[in-house]
Amino acid sequence: MRLTRLAAVLAAAVVLAPGGAQAAVGDPGSLDRSFSGDGRAVLDYGSRYDDQQATDVLPLPSGKTVVVSALSTSTGSAFGVARLRANGTPDPHFSANGRRTTTFTGNDAPHRVVSLGDGRILVAGSAGGAFGLVAYQHDGSLDPSFGTGGKVVTDVSPGADRVLDLRREPDGSILAAGIAGDQFATVRYDADGSLDHSFGAGGVVLTTDGFPGDPYAVRLAPDGKLLATGMGDRDSQDVRPLLVSRYDVDGSLDQTFGGDGRVTTVPQSADYQDAEYLEGDALLVDPEGRVLVGGELDWADYSFFCLVRYLPDGTLDASFADDGLAIDGGDGYYAQIRSLAQQADGKIVAAGWTDRVRKSLTLAVLRYTTTGERDTTFSGDGDAIIGFGGQPRSSAYAVAVRGSRIVAAGDAYGLVGARTVGVVAQLRQ
Length: 429
Fold this sequence. Notes:
This protein is mainly β. Among the domains are: 153 residues, no CATH class; 110 residues, no CATH class. It has a 4-stranded antiparallel sheet. It has a 4-stranded antiparallel sheet with strand order 2-3-4-5, with no helix packed on it.
């Protein structure tokens, strides 16, 4: 079945999750009904792929939207790239039906996408355990001017390597950062995909100190430094703290951040003294150089939305929420932030999931003020909970801001049989 027909069939079944305050049509936090008819689109690459998870979203200046997905079968995995028109329908000028798949080794997964200009895009992730990058032309074909037939594979370490962040520099060069075995790596490529040998050792910079815990996200700061976050090792109170590390461009720990390059954070509020862990899953560096970390707090078999802001030197920003931490359960049992973006006015947009509605995980988009409070002008209470018909599980892994719109992408299980498919929601700011 073609994607256009499938999206039309599913659109009739898509409903806004009931419960809680909801924005009126046209208000901030409401679904943009000019997008796919009701603000939601479904991406399905066919029954061959039983697990399809949108991992990043790129709103283009033209009004079109690129969504990249990790596509898995029982025997392997591939990159999935789709482009939607401004109205949310598949763009027939991109690979004929609005989507295409790409493989390196057959065990591949994309994570990030950036624009290369002139309608070209670059997608990066893992290619059989190495850094994998692939460039596409405006029509969805592989770009022969990049790498070998549009693809580049860089085996950074003997372990498993994967790109977690990607950036195109003003001079056209490309920075890719991620995990390389038990280290972090930053790799710089020339515009044609060749390694920039003037950077690090043959184009690669590895960190000199490992991450004492479990890393879940990395981010390239505007100054070229690398940030990593996740959970640290258990402390003397048997709590796993939120851990953030910052590395200089040479791979060494940045001693100006937290005094030794690392900061750990545990909740100070008496309400959460028995927390099991505080986890970082998303990173953002704002224009003032402050570091925002989104994730979850686990406490008493509950998990809560958690947003933390640090000053550029790694100290908690006391002007933000409760001494730097904004913790909110969302009136459910489970809640987690997986992606962050920032509006032009400084407000912070977060996306993830909550089980506040029907006690089933549901895609959620939240907005915070610049001081870390829930923005109640957004969907009435600061969060928009977006269901996708019946009772499928849904979640967001990526969020981006375009003009007066917010675009979130993730997945939903139960819309198309016992499979997971990608979903996109567009909301008004």
